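seq as requested:
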Amino acid sequence: MKRILNPSFLSPSLLAKGTFAALGFTALVIAGAAPAVKASLTDSPKAVVDEVWQIVNNEFVGYEFNQDAWQAQREELLDREYRTQQDAYDAIRQALRDLGDPYTRFLSPREFQDLTNQTTGELSGVGVRLTVDEDAGVLTVVEPLEDTPASAAGLESGDRILRIDGKPTALMTVEQASDLMRGPEGTTVTLQISRPERGLFELTLTRAQIEVPVLTYSLRQEDNARIGYMKLDEFSSHAAEQMEKAIQKLSEENVQAFVLDLRGNPGGLLFASVDIARMWMETGPIVRTVDRKGGDRSYDANRTALTQLPLVVLVDGNSASASEILAGALKDNGRATLVGSRTYGKGTVQSVHSLSDESGLAVTISRYYPPSGININNNGIAPNIEIDLTRDQQRLLVVNPALRGTGRDPHYLQALGILQAAIANQPNNPAIPAPISRTEQ
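struct tokens:
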């Protein structure tokens, strides 16, 4: 089965055996396992070793990839005896390290499932954001997500979760607690809650498939300017639809300009970045990909822009991959001003394959180039206005993420100045055009 996802993050049920185009800190294409060459390997740890070897042999793109040496590597790998699956995993990881490509990597079953959840933008759980209260050291609800079991059950911001299925949370990390709350759709989890006005009580929630929000946005009244601030955390399969709703909602509120914050965004799906670029660009090239056989594919805007209002994009050294595709397209086409520091510099695309034992393999399959045609790999994209934050400024925004997009954020202040000038230069401050419905294109 082969399927290209455009643009919707991958459903785990589809992901297990499907193929998806994506671009994250890996740039993803997810595929089914390749058949092992030798039937005798089927029930052996060598089966996964051989699957990995075949995928790399058929797809890997590397400047110094030597297929003859890789052929010799196969013989050496299959001559070994592996007592356990872990022994095979260790051998695979070493062989992949020898390729010299940090993005071609083996994923254990747990790592593969985690990546699946991340790139799909979906997981089976109850839909609640958690934190550990720094003062009390107690697991605390930040907020229940809308239309989820957590919100339906009445969980509230500030609720303290003392037990999960009877297990005390006193020494748990947020990650450990989240793991306990996740599980198969339709199963239940019982939480012991402490709420000041109600005391101790229990809630039993039925797990469901949850769409994870990757975009937050708000309308900021900055003097006489109405600014739409958007923070995109990753390019999941739901990122494009969330972006579309945000642009339309802010347009209905008579926004005059936008700030799109891609700082810290490691990437995600290739087609999500292309679809989002098309929401901002009416015409122009977006990105070009080239595989090892010289296959060349270009993606362009297609006259489906939702807005032509002024736009500033915030980037930093952790804006990578799909973030760089979007930022590069908007910069090179003159659609947006980039503010911040030079981006990460990841100019390659990976495919992620599911293997026969539910492990996975990410392998570099092509390179991509922004409209300028420059090779950004290890170089990144330079913003139009470069502002490198001091260590104290960086720490402040990390410790207090609510300060992003405020007067305590130097990148946002620079963006605000640019947009206020652009708004002031618009003749008579013309009315905002109505958003275009993409479903009608």
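Confidence is low (pLDDT under 50) at residues 1-41, 430-441.
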